[in-house]
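Predict structure. Input: PadR family transcriptional regulator, 167 residues.
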Amino acid sequence: MSVKHAILTLLSESPRHRYDLKVSFESMVYHQWELNAGQIYTTIDRLVRDGLVEETMGDSSELKIYRISEKGNEELFAWLLQPVEKTLLKDEFYFKLLCAKKISHASLQHMIKSQQEHIIQTIFQLQKLRRSIDPTRENEGILYLIEGKILHLEADMKWLSMFPHTT
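Output follows.
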């Protein structure tokens, strides 16, 4: 995930101070990803340095307010239009499986069964999260994200069931 582009997205909605960026980001992703304050602060400093964000002082407080620059908008829109590279074989579980097969690991079936159980738990968590979100126009993005992740996990379950001697 690109913290840089998450910040640019939030600043394209409205100018904000640093803490508001943290709170707004966590609200945007329904508290499924946490950002620490230091990560926000260092990213903002780089965005200001690179001319993607401008710093001003707030009218009613001493907090610095950040707004996206024209260059920042161009960067955000260019990033949104770029296709996302999918790593073909760099998934951690796939790599573990490759290593286990290479050494003829005796617990391969246990590995697969544990992974299947983990996937099922994750699907249940996502389904619970999906049910907790009102299906409003404002929530469409997060609902599509959840649905996409569930579909990927279901494909992983199907793939794992193709291994011999798994149930």
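The chain has a mean pLDDT of 90.
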